[in-house]
Amino acid sequence: MSKESRMKATINQKLxxxxxxxxxxxxxxxxxxxxxxxxxxxxxxxxxxxEKGLEHVTVEDLMVEITxxxxxxxxxxxxxxxxxxxxxxxxxxxx
Length: 95
Fold this sequence. Notes:
Its main location: nucleus. Helices cover 82% and strands 0% of the residues.
């Protein structure tokens, strides 16, 4: 396991143990709904299903198809806010 992987695991563990991960997920959900991301993704899913036909699309196919667009559509402001909150949390709880 690389040093980076160990660091990510440690950060993730700390976020989870202190309940911050769940708070960040709730914040992300709210922000994505607020900016219309959720509606955009719902519409994109409907497009993909319409193009391929309901009988020919699995959940896995849908995930592979929509994930890149979903990531690209997350506003920079939302990414920056989450990163800021994670950094602030880590600074406050540094050991």
